[in-house]
Amino acid sequence: MSNYARRMAMTGSNTSNVRWLLIFWLFILSVVAFLDRVNISIAGSSLAAAYHLSNVQLGWVFSAFLAGYALFQTPGGRLADRLGPRRVLAGGVIWWGVFTALTAAVPSGIRGALILFVSIRFLLGIGEAVVYPASNQFVARWIPTQERGIANGWIFAGVGAGAGLSPPLITYARKQDVTHVKE
Q1: Alpha-carbon gap, residue 76 to 160, rounded angstroms
Q2: Which helix (H) or strand (E) holds 35?
Q3: 103: which of 46, 128, 170, 183 lies 20 to 30 Å off by Cα?
Q4: pLDDT higher at 4 or 168
Q5: Is the separation of the CB atoms in 156 and 30 below 8 Å?
Q6: pLDDT at 80 exceeding the cut of 60
Q7: Shortest CA distance to 95 belongs to which of 61, 132, 120, 112?
Q8: Quick check: 22 and 154 in contact, CB under 8 A?
Q9: What is the DSSP letter of 145?
């Protein structure tokens, strides 16, 4: 018997709308994860100029995220199986928050900036690798079978929303930085 079935048997009802609030938060998490994933590509030209990176070096920075992400999705799913999706998602969000902040904290002019960026982006990819395996584990545990398609649809719609929001948000942020510097 699934956790959901046990909970429904204990309460005697199927009135829990909490699961849809949690699906909404997983949608938001998916949007933010996608923003984190692509923000560096939009800011790539500024990054290359500030740190004197060639296009090839910038490619290494971009690819480092994907390597960490691809290599750690399966272990992330295994971790969600063992520790539960709530703990793994919370840990993943904290992890990727730290490495997103570290990306912005690399001082310009520092020696070894390329190695730092590649390492940070690889580790960021590891943190984000848990999002979808843990979300799937959440859906399997909390959502009845007949509602899983719509729940997963909302979670993965976050990717499309993140893709649509990333360029205008990052362009707006860059424009604000340029305006602030001119003042």
Answers
A1: 22
A2: helix 18-42
A3: 183
A4: 168
A5: yes
A6: yes
A7: 120
A8: no
A9: G
User: Each residue of 102-134: pLDDT tens digit?
Assistant: 988 999 888 999 999 999 999 999 999 999 999
- The tens digit of pLDDT for each residue in 23-79 reads 999 999 999 888 888 878 777 888 899 999 999 999 999 999 999 999 999 999 999
User: Which alpha helices (DSSP H) does the chain contain, by range?
Assistant: 3-11, 18-42, 44-51, 55-83, 85-105, 113-128, 131-142, 148-182
What are the tokens at 139? 């859906």
Distance of CA 93 to the CA centre of its chain: 7
SS3 151: helix
- Token code pair at residue 28: 């938001």
Q: Average pLDDT of the chain?
A: 86
For residue 101, what are its two tokens? 């902040």
Asked if residue 44 lies in contact with residue 62, where contact means CB atoms within 8 angstroms, the answer is yes
Domains of the chain plus CATH, in order, are 20-182 (1.20.1250.20)
